[in-house]
Give the backbone structure.
Amino acid sequence: MRYHLLAAALAASTAITLAAPAGAADLEVTHWWTSGGEAAAVAEFAKAFDATGNKWVDGAIAGGGSTARPVMVSRITGGSPMAATQFNTGRQAEELVEAGLMRDFTDLAAKEGWKDFIRPASLLEGCTVDGKVYCVPVNIHSWQWLWLSNKAFEDAGVPVPTNWDEFVAAGPALEKAGKIPLAIGGQSWQTTGTFNVLIPAIAGKDVFLKVYQDHDAEVAAGPEIAKVFKAADDARKLSAKSNVQDWNQATNMVITGQAGGQIMGDWAQGEFQVAGQVAGKDYTCLPGLGVNELISTGGDSFYFPKLDDADKTAAQEVLASTMLNPATQVAFNLKKGSVPVRGDVDVAAANDCMKKGLDILAKGNIIPDTNQLNTEDTNNQLNDLFVEFFKTPSMTPEEAQKRYAAIIASAD
Amino acid sequence: MSTSGTTARRPSQLFRNLNAKIASLPMILTALCVFLGGTVWTIVYSFTNSKLLPRLKFVGLDQYERLWSQSRWLTSIENLLVYGVLSLIFSFVIGFILAALLDQKIRFEGVFRTIFLYPFALSFVVTGLTWQWILNPDFGVQHIVRGLGWESFTFNPLYDQRIVIYGILIAGLWQGTGLIMCLMLAGLRGIDEDIWKAARVDGIPTWKTYLFIVIPMMRPVFITTLVIVASGIVRLYDLVVAQTSGGPGGASEVPAKYVYDYMFLAQNLGQGFAASTMMLLSVAIIVVPWAYLEFGGKKRG
């Protein structure tokens, strides 16, 4: 009698699942967008996906990319993959694709003509392995920005700098006014990012490509990079008193006027927006540090692990398509502070700084992002080096440059 | 004993106590397959250049050469040595003194014991975070003492590269000394009353009684405590991550954190495996000779 009841209960539960509307699936999407501005942006994706009749199950992982990526990789290699996951555009998921754990969208890409509207072409190329498209780039983020607090410079009685050299010169005045000239968080990727931004600004685009694209150790040990290390030494002195951890805590110091400036990517704009600040009035942005107006075209891409469930697999295509449709692209990117991947959308609502970025992109003054050029191993070694350099005043730029050249020499 | 007697006895010895042997079979399999098997697998793969996923491409000692040329690894080892030695010394000394004090038939002994043991109930993450706040110059100890009038008082270990490991040591000792105290107390309670009476009759001062009579008698307790403290030291990871994230500038890095960061963040399994094999080697170097002295000698006697 009990056995029959159990069998009936099991049959009933299967019937209920079968009775669900076909095609409407719950997709778990993991990402590390947890700051105020980022959360507002990802909510746009969720809204757009929910409007298609499916459900976006949010899987935000706090702690930034370095905390989130190991979790994502473990789940995928461990056999309980999520339906979609964010990675930075580039080589982060290289081995997962090679191991055949990700599904491809070559048919969808051909049908919707992704290669026609995604610009620059390097974004989709980064997603293409052996002619198959494995990921969906959703935004273009660049690192090469110096964010300045107008209030901090006003309090210090100096005009807002227009380039890196003026910023360094204004350092003593800021310190006298009790401000921290350059805010940097303690996480190692931020110090590496600062250094990588100084390279094109001080040594130019060619040197940047020689070091990170060609992995030329001689250039890395040479005089142009020595100049960059000298600038990094200046940055180190200016940021000596900065003792926050997360990038958005450092941005907050700029927003509240406690710090003069921060070298951070354009995802910082989301924070300024959430704080209600206006570009040009409350804060100033200098692309390329005001020296060489170059921006990198990195950003985020969504990868979709292979799933067994047919409904979910079909819904993955809907999600990929939704992320790239014009309305969603505009809504998401305006809140995120990034540039849409579509060249054919109207971003009239973009603020001053975003417009500067779009200009530079249109002129073609772009460089690839280090995530597209280096493996995580190389990036991690650079992180170790630069976090030590920035926090150890006794480490000379020459010493650091020697270790830097060794890392570039062993990069693959 | 005749030879026929011994040959006849051998098979039956295998089947003696059969129930106990069958009951311990799962643990034996776990120990063999999981512990030993996992260890051997890790050591073998540390000689490959596995990146995100393991692969059998052998590169000899490359990973070890790279490991020992990294300044971060050398800092980690140094930190572990400093933390390990000081943690052992201080937790034993403080733990024993507290236990000796509690053993004096005081009132409210239960209350004191609970208070001292409470921190052990906290995870290392909570301990690390709490001590990060306590040692924070803007809100913690430094701020309070300055508020009381000593304007030039500085106590900022977590932002000073040379002494950050001592800041971590304070948090680690606070968390673990309670357990050591309880173990020592149990050991002290196991000392026969008559020993104390005899020592008093002989006129030996109390401190000498502790040092020369009681402590040698508590040898098994000391060894157990040593194993527990040592395993906690080698495993040091979550405390560092919660308290300083390895900072400032990588000054509070520890080997376990190096293993994790290179296995998962840098997507370089080979490097992580090499580092964890080195950790195993360092533990083995200490444990194997000791085990030989402890157990090997007795069998011969």
Summary: Confidence is low (pLDDT under 50) at residues 15-20 of chain A.
